[in-house]
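If you are new to this repository, start here. Below is one unmodified record pulled from the training split, so you can see the exact layout before writing a loader.
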Amino acid sequence: MNLWFRLIRMLLTFRWRPRVHPLGTSVLHMRVQPNDLDFNGHVNNGRYLTLADVARMDFVLRTGAARVAWRHRALPIVGDATAKFRRDLKPFERFEVHSRVLGWEGKWTFIEHRFVRHGRVLGLVLIRGLFKAPGGTLDPREFAVELGQSPDSPALPAWVLEWHRSCDSLSQHLREEEHDVALPEAARA
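And here is the target side for that same chain:
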């Protein structure tokens, strides 16, 4: 099944799945399709990120976060993603994607997607994202309050905070690199 069909199916059926608490976990059931596979005969590493996108949309809809975003005319933006692969998924195997918010810091919200088969985590995708409205980025604390939650984030695991700092460091490095490249061009003008 192509990803558009998966997305359309999820959009048509999410209302019949139970609502999810904003700090709870949504579970989306899927099956490996032939177009998910790479030359090694298992799910392509890039496909995990795309499947996580579909699962994240399901999570956002079932928690009510989509309604908050729509009120603000905000769009979800993924700033960074990382993945850990533990076991492969083979053709036609059934699996689940368990999605949950781990917490937030600054402008970023951290969402985890666990790829699970028979109770075992086969892979994990972590994203750092935000909601961008016409007036700027929505504060995750205010977003949480609009969902009926405390503005205080749950404690983020140390490995998430380390990754978060690493992403900030890489962003800073890229800005500096762009600045260094732009400087000689400006001097020539």
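Two things worth knowing about this chain: The first helix runs from residue 3 to 13. Residues 157-189 form one domain.
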